[in-house]
């Protein structure tokens, strides 16, 4: 199975590749000053034009971690698959819609996401979780707040624009969740206030003024390999859907290197001792619980020194060795593309007001014909690429530590 990606899902954000200098009109500080000017205007209509010297502002509302989205079908054929889009609205429209709910939009509510110099546009996010009545309308376009994980599965990974929108949504969710978690100073307990257009916060206590920056939660994820018997160790958690297996993973502890974390987690979860650890790639992962705003998955190949499995039942439901042949067969028959199209169609139904509230999690992997004994997370997950790289081609066996040698297959040709 060959899947071409320019970057992992949630990586490759097209509006934050470079931060403009402070004096640039699209920089966080300049855009924030212009934002305050916009908000001071008294909009009696929904479409007041911005001042000529100001960039265009677009806002992405979120409700309880779900970005606003719409869906459309570009073709006229019955078998055309819908595609989702982020529900950007103009700043005047955002102020108008919130005003209808009795809420004044302030500069402290908006978080700077990035900009596009070529379009003279600055992008912002706003959390409207407290306004259950707010569902913007725009002509014939219908909007809906959709779980980020659902959008992840529904994204066509061959579409670079769609992948870029997914990365923007992931970045925005991580920032907004962090803002919700950091409302009070951890040092003195006073309220915090946004600074640098929401890119950091600061304690409001004049005697404290502690600076608080967005958190990143690093996680090691590893495919443990038995070189001698040409097989890999895969685990199952109790929350997994039936027949799904994946790589082992765990959070890095303070004072621990990446390599040490790989070895410790593997031994704790499966009782396997690991020697060599070789870096593969990393992936932002903003679809976890709101208490962990943004995980960074750091992927490795880990080579086993022992082979007897001793599963920690509090961590895993099961762990087993699987041959390369069995893994390759499972990859070949799993219809990941069909699952993506199915979920995209469900997002379209949700935006039209159909099947709201229905869980989509059980649909993300669909096999044709007879059910295979196992399958793996889809191409949106780094686990998939660790597994498929090992199954379909040789990986380095002479790396000494993480970062010393990267697999010959970059993510662009997995």
From TrEMBL:
Pfam families: NUDIX, NUDIX-like, Zn_ribbon_NUD
GO molecular function: metal ion binding; NADH pyrophosphatase activity
Record-annotated Nudix hydrolase domain positions: 214-344
EC number assigned by the record: 3.6.1.22
Cofactor(s) for this UniProt protein: Mg(2+); Zn(2+)
GO cellular component terms attached to this protein's record: cytosol; peroxisome
InterPro entries: NAD-cap_RNA_hydrolase_NudC (IPR050241), NADH_PPase-like_N (IPR015375), NudC-like_C (IPR049734), Nudix_hydrolase (IPR020476), NUDIX_hydrolase-like_dom_sf (IPR015797), NUDIX_hydrolase_CS (IPR020084), NUDIX_hydrolase_dom (IPR000086), Znr_NADH_PPase (IPR015376)
Keywords on record: Hydrolase, Magnesium, Metal-binding, NAD
An individual GO BP term: NAD+ catabolic process
Catalytic activity field: a 5'-end NAD(+)-phospho-ribonucleoside in mRNA + H2O = a 5'-end phospho-adenosine-phospho-ribonucleoside in mRNA + beta-nicotinamide D-ribonucleotide + 2 H(+)
NCBIfam families on file: PRK00241.1
Family per similarity comment: Belongs to the Nudix hydrolase family. NudC subfamily.
The name this protein goes by in its record: NAD(+) diphosphatase
Organism: Gossypium trilobum
């Amino acid at each position: 199975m060959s899947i071409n990606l320019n970057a992992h899902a949630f990586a490759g954000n097209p509006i934050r590749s470079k931060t403009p200098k402070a004096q640039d009109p699209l920089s966080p500080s300049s855009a924030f000053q212009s934002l305050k000017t916009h908000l001071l205007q008294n909009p009696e209509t929904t479409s007041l034009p911005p001042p000529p010297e100001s960039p265009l502002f677009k806002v992405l509302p979120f409700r309880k971690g779900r970005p606003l989205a719409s869906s459309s079908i570009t073709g006229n054929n019955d078998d055309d698959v819908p595609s989702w889009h982020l529900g950007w609205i103009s700043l005047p429209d955002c102020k108008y819609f919130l005003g209808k709910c009795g809420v004044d939009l302030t500069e402290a509510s908006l978080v700077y996401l990035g900009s596009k110099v070529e379009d003279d546009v600055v992008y912002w996010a706003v959390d409207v979780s407290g306004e259950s009545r707010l569902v913007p309308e725009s002509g014939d376009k219908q909007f809906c707040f959709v779980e980020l994980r659902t959008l992840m599965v529904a994204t066509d990974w061959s579409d670079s624009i769609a992948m870029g929108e997914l990365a923007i949504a992931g970045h925005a969710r991580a920032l907004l969740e962090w803002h919700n978690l950091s409302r009070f100073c951890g040092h003195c307990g006073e309220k915090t206030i946004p600074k640098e257009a929401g890119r950091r916060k600061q304690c409001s206590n004049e005697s404290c003024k502690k600076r608080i920056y967005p958190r990143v939660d690093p996680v090691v994820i590893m495919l443990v390999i038995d070189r001698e018997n040409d097989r890999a160790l895969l685990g199952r958690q109790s929350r997994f859907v039936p027949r799904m297996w994946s790589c082992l993973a765990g959070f890095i502890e303070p004072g621990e290197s990446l390599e040490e974390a790989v070895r410790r987690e593997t031994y704790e979860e499966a009782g396997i001792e690991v020697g060599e650890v070789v870096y593969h790639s990393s992936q932002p992962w903003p679809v976890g619980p709101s208490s962990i705003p943004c995980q960074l998955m750091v992927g490795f190949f880990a080579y086993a020194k022992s082979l007897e499995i001793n599963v920690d039942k509090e961590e895993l439901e099961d762990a087993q060795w699987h041959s390369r042949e069995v893994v390759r067969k499972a990859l070949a028959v799993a219809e990941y593309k069909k699952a993506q199209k199915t979920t995209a169609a469900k997002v379209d139904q949700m935006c039209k007001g159909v099947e709201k509230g229905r869980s989509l999690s059980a649909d993300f992997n669909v096999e044709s014909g007879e059910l295979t004994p196992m399958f793996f997370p889809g191409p949106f997950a780094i686990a998939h690429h660790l597994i498929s790289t090992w199954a379909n081609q040789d990986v380095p066996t002479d790396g000494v530590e993480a970062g010393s040698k990267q697999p010959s297959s970059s993510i662009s040709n997995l």
